[in-house]
Amino acid sequence: MNLSRGVELFNSHEEYRRFQESFVVTATNRPEAQPLRERAIQLARAHDGVTNESELRRTLADLAVSVDSESYATIAPMCAYLAQILFRDVSNAIPAEVRTRIIDYDGPKFYFVGHTSYFDYMLTGELIRRLGMDTPVTHFAGSVTRGWVSNWIKGFRALFLPMSFSPVQHKAYSWFSAALAERNETQVLLARTSRYTVRSRDGVLREPYVPHAVVSSVKAAGKALVIPVAISYAAIPEDRNLLSPPIFPLLSMAPKSWTLLARLALGYGMPEKVFSQLHGAFGDVSVDLGAPFELTDDKSLTLQRISHRAIEEIAKHKMIHPSHLVAKALQGLERVNFNTLKQAAEKELDTTRDFFKTRYRKNPPLQGTIESDLPQAIRTGIRTLIQRGALKRSFFRRTYSPSNPVLLRFYGYYGDRRIYPLSGRNTMTVVNAGVWGYTLALHIGANMVKKPELSEHSLILYDSREDLIEKLTMEGKHPWHFKDIALPRSVRPESDFLAAVGDTSLILLVTPSKYFYGTLLKVLQSAPEGSDLVIATKGFVPETGLLPCQTARYEMERLGNRMRVSVLSGANLAHEIVVGGAGVTQLACDSPQTFERLKPLIETPLFRIVYSGDVIGTTISAALKNVYAIGYGILEGSKKAPENFLATYSTLVTAEIRQFGMLLGAAPETFDAESQVWMADLLATCRGGRSAKFGRDLAEMDEKSGKYKPARILLDQYRKKRIAVEGFEAARYANRMASQRGFHPAILGEIYSLLHGGKQIDVNDFMEKCLDALTHKTQHPVPSINRSRALRY
Predict the structure, then answer these.
(1) Could you tell me the end-to-end alpha-carbon distance of the chain, in angstroms, rounded to an integer?
(2) 414 confidence band (pLDDT: 50, 70, 90)
(3) How far is CA 476 from the centre of its chain?
(4) What global pTM score does this model have?
(5) Where does residue 133 rank: exposed (0-12), middle (13-18), buried (19+ CB within 10 A)?
(6) Neighbour tally for 783: CB within 10 Å
(7) Can you tell me the distance from the alpha carbon of 480 to that of 486, in angstroms, rounded to the nearest whole number?
């Protein structure tokens, strides 16, 4: 809505004018930005040891607390009035001891809000105003700072932030917040700004990420008070937008009818009639406080400790409304009458009470009607869910069935107080949401949901492409890969790198080889010391010309960051794994503890994981099988190589890679016939992998020109289709690495010449080069002068 049109509409409403007269506008001030920025630099120097101060200064120049006193005086009462008329406040009274602790606390205060709706901003501001406190600094980020909502942000003291942070942006934000904390400024953090992701797309409670700004603030001020805020809606204004974003997000908030929304947006008609229809449009809301807790600058100041304490306080105090109870009771039911629904609701209530007594040692925070009149509460819940489009009733109104199962599940999860993960200690991260990374996220995430022993685990799926993460978050499905398979609720998409890796102890690095080096450096700079780094990247690293595991160890030595390096590889075609196909993968690691930790996350009855201590051999197998698969594809695609030779090819390349691997320090048994990481992976890639398909396409002769398509042109066509061919560049680096060591493998050299040397495909010549590798096998061996071991004695 245009701001001036909105002000005109409100001012023409008599009830609002009376409200405005009684509304006390607290004094607002704009903290001077430059002193805060200078203090942020000083704090960063003292605690972080800044290495690039000029870059930090440039980033800090974008940070300032924005407030317009005139706009604030106009918009603040409008926001407060909307908060009062759109919802029926059923919040519990704030306990006197909690109120006293907050008001009397001598130090910075952070309100942590379990973000659900845009209206959280208004409701949190109203809560703080009722406590009699000064206007806080509210952190805003991303799309909320643009468009129609941005007009209403002028009613806040706002700190505008990007949707996701680079490391230097995160550092600037952290110490700027710390400079504010030193001045005892109260600050409000919500999910969209802090990545404090309490709720997922489908409403599941998450173990949140707590921004480093909180820790930095405690280091600067010596202490801080964290105040968890639990906001719970009977009808979530943006429920449809959260699940399936429309073109115009505002339309998803239509409280009762499109005609009312149009009249409100355009500002015509009688204001009294418009506003009278807005009263209670979204039903009940509760804004309750969890127990505040103090942080001090001591050894227990960890992000995991803060996040776990805050999320538990939010989970314990978010009210369970009738719509949540009815939605939970209907899970798994297709069509029920009222009595059956009542029985299911009673059973769900018993389960909830048992969970709260076991988990939180208290009774669940149920909306009053549920306790006093359950049948009436069920009718209220049914009515709300029908209005929101989640439920429908039969023509005779005797039975009820889901009209939108996804939306119904969404409301059911809002009544669920289980947290993923429960312990806050078992989070792992998959870096990169490409086809292989997404496959691992789907596979491991499904295990976390299915296996009871993994119920306290969760997985973060990171990708730097914000548009991709937004789609994964909103729609729950990948826009390019396996579009019909939804992410399990145990998986949380994330585009903020520090949020993804800064507080996790197991990182699966699954980037394409060309992005490996830059991502590795960010991981080593951000991940906790002693974490597990599991590399699933196949190929060579362009910046170093080395294998990924070699590069990781070299950079750890250079940067002084110690992580336990492992390599995951095997006969793992993604399209088979995501549908539950049988198979085996191999984890090569220095520490058996890493294997024991990863085994239950990956294994299923039909998919197993095996152990190896040969990190180098496993890595080079993963790199070269793609190269040799291109050669296989060329031979097969040409239709000129006989079946006898295709069968022999695998033995010839095995002999070649064994020599190469042993030259690098690999164990010879890694390349045996029973090796999962070599022979099984080679055969699977030759039969159904992208590299083999690339070879087959390369061997197809153009009908018009009568020539083969150049490898580089074909590669460009693959890239346009978002298909990676790891074997193409791997051939270049493998050939260079071998030559540097005085090793000249015939098959690898021929594939390199076809891909990078401009050599035309000649299948007979290629087969002859391959067979030349048998020279040492085709001559009669010279008898040994030593007797065999059996005859020695």
Answers:
(1) 98
(2) confident
(3) 11
(4) 0.66
(5) middle
(6) 6
(7) 13
